[in-house]
């Protein structure tokens, strides 16, 4: 297995070509590009962050790190399909009725809930070849054999950002934006810079489409994830990185919204129980021994009692059936999900064993 000697894409495919100044020699003329082009003393797209390695590391951590999902990695197979390719393209998300919600929170990247999916825009620095060579020099499998003359900046005690996270993030875009339609949706949703053309993007992102799981961070061994299942994973496994033990991400931002969603189930519960109790009262109030007796002074009253009694029995039976289905279907779905997770885990372990 060879090691990376360059960025995951050649310099000719870079979508951002800004030159970066050497932060350790900012006052030295020799640190400036010899071509006469102006260099920048900050990371592309963010003038507030300098080029010192520790500053870059902190910024990349804020932009890309997903510690909570990394902590839940060993349990994610129970709530999601372990496949980094399990990512619907943007136009498919639209077909499924999901709104594309841009977010700067990396925890929410590719998390979907009901009618929306959260997607983090591409940081401009990840489109810059020189930035990859300096700060994101991968250490694993090579995607490109191009050599580079760009010097890596070293700083004593500088923390190193795991480049597999950035590679996994960019690989997710290889599946999100596959066609010109996806590209147009991405621009409309402010996910990629507007000055990039489709052909340029297609050539660039194709270098990430061939990346295998062993070159990406653990989070990107999985694709899009359902928020409701992640909420349950947080409640059950109680990871240390979570902000709250009840939610991966709280979907309710006001008490009013929560009450609106909770009103219908509560009203349904109250109404169904009331109807069932009323029907039971009717059943108990009608003497059973007189319902089918042929000795009766008032046959019309007997027929009416019989009709009400049968109707009440039917209502109670329907009520029981409804609750059996309401409780049984989710239980069956949960059991199937656990079974599916175990089966896929065994298949994954079998593939890993055969590979070794």
From TrEMBL:
Pfam assignment, any one: DUF6601
Bilayer-crossing regions: 266-288, 308-336
Claim: Transmembrane helix is one of the keywords in the record: yes
Record keywords: Membrane, Transmembrane, Transmembrane helix
Protein name in UniProt: Subtilisin-like serine protease
